[in-house]
Specification:
This protein is of the alpha/beta class. Helix 2 crosses helix 5. The longest helix is centred in the first third of the chain and has 17 residues.
């Protein structure tokens, strides 16, 4: 497959990423169990009557997608593809609560209708009056990567020229309670978290929405080339280096061709060992991490892709992301490696536009 271009990138996250100066104002977040996204004033983007009926993930995605389309100069994309791990879980919880509170009788269908995972892609299409290809991927931590892969295929096959691709996940109170109980989220006594050298299990949970416009052609605004994607649902620790090396070989690259590697260190001692294994390959590359800025969640890789886009475009790496002290004169290739709890491993290769 030939490379496609990421021609715009927008993100709502724990950081103030809608602000033009966010790159200089990134702050590490390691002392709270749960991190909330910094939300915009939705009244500026969505009619209040419509906004009241939307869950948080739909609102975040609606605004982020508007930013992405505006930056790319696209009014109506040829396809809309969204990846999500948890979908509209706020409405799912509201529906289930209604079922219990009303003894399964006299239920209004609204929350059930709005709780489906494809609500986000559907609402964006309704807002744009876009009747093109509309698809949602629900593949835990590789949902965005599958969405990128689909968009790449659509463009390479001549089915589309510009595709809106997004990732989104929200928090809900009940799910966060359950994550605390099953130790997915770190215990209070294990905070502040040490993301790089953690000796405790669990993560700090975040949320957010990231949207990108992928195009067949390079524009004056292009951030990067999306060169290739590799996804593996299960991986033994001993297979990690081979997994990475095979991916690079497939793209006719060696480890020395990678200028920066963005790793998904989450502070979970059990699963971060995969990243440490991968790090050993890249002695001459700038090693970066990002979940101390975004928190861990199913589609946290959207935040890392957004950051990688800006790093490639600005040719600058924020100090707060750096693991080692390697600095390159020019940044041409960035490798993104992510998984969630040791499952659904993904590699994304981005090149300078």
């Amino acid at each position: 497959m030939s490379a496609v271009y990421i021609n715009s990138a927008a993100c709502i996250s724990v950081q103030d990423t809608l602000n033009e100066n966010f790159f200089q104002n990134l702050k590490s977040e390691n002392s709270s169990q749960v991190l909330k996204a910094i939300e915009p004033n939705y009244k500026e983007f969505i009619p209040p009557a419509a906004s009241r009926r939307m869950s948080k993930t739909v609102k975040m995605s609606s605004v982020a997608s508007q930013y992405a389309l505006k930056e790319a100069g696209i009014e109506n994309p040829d396809a809309i593809i969204v990846g999500t791990g948890m979908g509209c879980s706020q409405d799912s919880e509201k529906f289930l609560k209604n079922v219990l509170d009303n003894n399964e009788e006299f239920l209004t269908p609204t929350f059930f209708i709005q709780s489906t995972h494809n609500t986000v892609a559907g609402q964006i299409a309704l807002g744009l009056q876009c009747h093109a290809y509309n698809f949602t991927y629900v593949n835990t931590s590789s949902s965005l990567e599958f969405s990128f892969l689909d968009a790449k295929l659509q463009i390479n096959d001549g089915e589309a020229e510009n595709v809106l691709v997004g990732s989104t996940d929200e928090q809900t109170d009940r799910t966060m309670e359950l994550y605390r109980l099953n130790k997915t989220i770190k215990n209070e006594e294990n905070l502040p978290a040490d993301y790089q050298n953690s000796t405790t299990d669990g993560v700090i949970w975040g949320e957010g929405a990231s949207f990108f416009v992928l195009g067949k052609d390079k524009t004056g605004n292009s951030y990067t080339q999306l060169q290739d994607i590799q996804i593996n649902s299960q991986l033994d620790l001993e297979e990690t280096e081979q997994f990475v090396e095979d991916f690079l070989a497939k793209n006719n690259l060696s480890k020395n061709d990678i200028d920066a590697v963005i790793l998904g260190f989450s502070g979970d001692s059990k699963s971060d060992v995969y990243y440490k294994k991968a790090m050993d390959l890249f002695e001459n590359s700038a090693l970066l991490y990002y979940k101390h800025l975004s928190g861990e969640f199913n589609t946290a890789s959207g935040f890392s892709t957004f950051m990688a886009c800006h790093i490639l475009k600005n040719q600058e790496i924020p100090e707060v992301m750096m693991i080692n002290s390697v600095k390159k004169d020019g940044i041409k290739n960035i490798l993104l490696y992510n998984h969630l709890g040791g499952k659904d491993h993904s590699l994304v290769l981005l090149g300078r536009a």
